[in-house]
Design a protein that fits this description.
Structural class: mainly alpha
Number of strands: 0
Number of helices: 4
Helix content: over 70%
Radius of gyration: 15 Å
Order of helices and strands: HHHH
Largest sheet: none
Length: 101
């Protein structure tokens, strides 16, 4: 990543973080939960592919989405580590672990 790209990324990340923090607590919580739910769905889509080639393709698509949306995705994910979001975080972990069974 070039210096210009890194600077643009950092500015976008800062902007999205500030935007998240200006939301009302209820709206912020809904936003964080929606990002978490989206991530759960995306992970499930990768994991449900039984064919290794299709699973790899789905994983590459997910990484592409994560890279493109990183400035918008990172602040809510970081925010979910707050105590009030522990249940949602546990849901992600349980969701990932249930797929293995």
């Amino acid at each position: 990543m070039s210096t210009e790209e890194q600077t643009a990324f950092n500015q976008a990340l800062d902007h999205e973080t500030k935007k998240l923090m200006t939301l009302t607590p209820e709206t912020r919580e809904q936003h964080v939960i929606s990002i978490v739910d989206w991530l759960i769905v995306e992970i499930h889509m990768v994991k449900k592919q039984k064919n290794p080639a299709l699973q790899r393709e789905a994983l590459i698509k997910l990484f592409d989405k994560l890279n493109k949306g990183a400035p918008k995705i990172i602040p809510p994910i970081m925010y979910m580590f707050k105590p009030e979001f522990q249940l949602q975080f546990i849901r992600i972990l349980q969701s990932m672990s249930n797929e293995k069974n």
